[in-house]
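During the no-cost extension, the postdoctoral fellow (Dr. R.K.) reprocessed legacy sequence entries with the updated structure-token encoder. One reprocessed record is reproduced below for audit purposes.
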Amino acid sequence: MKIFDEAELAIEQDEIVKLLGYKDRLPQEDVLELIREEVNRSGEYLEPVSYYEDIEIERIENNRVLLKNQVVFEGEFIAGKLKGCSRITAVIATVGSKVTERVQEAFDQDDYLRGMVIDNIGLAALGHLNRLFWIRMGEAIRGTDQGITQTLSPGDTDWDLWEETKIFNCFGDGFNQVSLTESCLMLPEKSTAQVYGFGKGIGIARQGHICAECSMRHCFYRQDGKVGLTVCHEGVSEVIDVEPGMNLLDVLRQNDLFVENPCSGKLLCGKCRVKIKRGLEEPAEHDLRHLTKEDLGNGWRLSCGICIKGPMEVILEKKGGIEVLTGGRTQWYEVEPPAERIDCRMDPPSVHDQRDDLQRLRQACGTERLTAGIEDLALIGGKLRDNQFNVTAVVYRDQLLELTGIGGIERFYGVAVDIGTTTVAAYLMDLSDGTQVDVESAVNSQRKYGADVISRIDYTIENPEGLAVLRNSIREQVSGMISALCRRNGITEEFVYNVTVAGNTTMTHLLLGLPCDNIAQAPYIPVTNSALEVGAGELGLKTKGIVSIIPGIAAYVGSDITAGILSCGMLDSQGYSVLLDIGTNGEIAIGNCNEIITCSTAAGPAFEGSNIRHGIGGVKGAISKIDLFKDKIYETIGGEDPVGICGSGVLDATAQLVKYGIVDGTGRMREAKGGKHKGRIAEIDGMKQLVVARRSSGGELITFTQKDVREVQLAKAAINAGINLLIKEKELEFSQIENVYIGGGFGNFMNIESAVTIGMIPRELQEKIRSVGNCAGSGAKAYLLSKALRSRAVEIADMARYIELSARKDFQDYYIEAMIFEPK
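Re-encoded structure tokens follow.
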């Protein structure tokens, strides 16, 4: 190994000014003075050194570069760039760890500007070191027939970031001056790894080159009008060309890089945080409002408030996939789907029987109303004669979908889809016997445009192409899920003859591509809540079948509630039951076999984590249970290290604070009087908070704040008031309620005792609570498999009466009363 440590780094004040984002103007004099001070002191903490090895190339083939030291670089990019080279120089350069330590010291002292200046001095120094090393190599080959390539660095070019490990392998096991983590982060942080190729006739790379043809897209001095945004996520790094002035959150969305943003980029929720590794600016007002000093000091900012001015490098938080609830209540019903497979045996035509082919098929199928599209009509005659008039027809409600010889349709499937605001579940069902073959679930792909329906509706209003973007997003997702189910089970999509869809009214509107702006404003009128039948091709699905949209009830009580009522058992008794579906919204229905009344409350965001300081969806590592009596007060999903608090954890946290008297009846958090939890209440950023855990990555505290208590207080009061109002509307007593069915993802996982402790569900109903899982998914399956239940669903939608709570004075009375916490 060779060492280059003779570099004299001349850091210029103007260079640091540029790196801080001052391109067209100078900063104030106090900022300039700080820059001058740190530039002059930089020699105290910069330790520039380059380690390098010269290695012969054995051969290049099949996009692989085989070196004589047994290391193999892989990829079309690197193989192309080293074509014609006979050797390479592998280089690892660093300016040492002291600069990073000085940055952290400044941040710890809340001196953010100084920290950013020092950080950019480190970046500038590293760039100078690499340029000086390149100049030295160029001088060494001057006057020879050798040329040198441009800098080839994994991650900065189209060369995969993981190839950095190969560069380190060139230095052998004993090399420890710079280390590489599993996620390809170099320590010290201000370090780089690169390769230069040498060969005859390849020319000498020049720094005065054409930027548009350069693969170094992160370069600060790029002159082709675009800047490089480096995004590190899930262990990989990619560079995106960005027009200066674009919003960071918008760029991430456009490139399918997910960041939590429940408010859809309106600077309200504080969830879209990213860590700025390069290009960090001073925190804005919204950053200060939503992020802690610790977060700000570690480089976190809200992506929705960042205007990209120059090259940036950002790190996205690593989050596991949300656990999607797919199980539901088991029902018994006769399997008789609207899609039917009918064997038809007919006498061939003759001079004595001159019925046309369609009429002959109609009579054989037992329906005079059988219809067929023009393309199918053109094929009927040939198929009948090819099979001696013995055929199998697939008919959906008098519409011909398929026609083959007898026994030619061995597989006969349908798919039931539940489109939730947060998650989507698709169930592959065998239509011949009603068995569930498989299930596919995922986070709703529209989630990057807002966590709730109002945020997504706003996106369609505020962006000219917004409706098309959200429509295409969910259509492509549903199509992909059906394809995955079919592929996994060895069938083709042409054997899926019916797809049924349950979802809230906004979700079904977006699937159909219907404008939904009127849903968000009084008097809240959707385009349609009716049952619909649409050709699968119209929605971009690859099946031959029909898509059936389950009917809804109102703008905020959609077909998912119709499906839930159908599946939960509410219609099986003369006695009254309550269905409570707490998801992103809170829908409530009360009824029996004769009548149903419904309402909707704005309760979901708190229990989805949207308005909670450290709230998060039900991902791995989310804190899902909290018990202040235990030594370790929390449990996480999957037993992973904690990353935030999901809905059930939010509920538990509030209940525990109420139970131990830390939150009083008005919702005010106070000091704990004693016990194990005494030291867990701290005042942070001027607000009392329950310290729950500490993130393993970054070490930030995960807390539950006074503001979070208020959010839960508002949500639980709305749900309690809705339940009480519907019971009053029917002039019932709590004793007359037979069952309280709890559906939806949050409802399935929540602690019932916690829900009762905070007063979300009246204590008188506690013993009547029954979890029915994903009742919307169960209802969608029933709608797929049973003609009788499909008709019943239409009856439910017709008979259900919706009460608009905002128009009821008595709701406000119940709401105010339900705000009080009353521990047992």
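DSSP finds 23 helices and 35 strands in the chain. The mean pLDDT is 86. The remaining legacy entries will be reprocessed before the final report is submitted.
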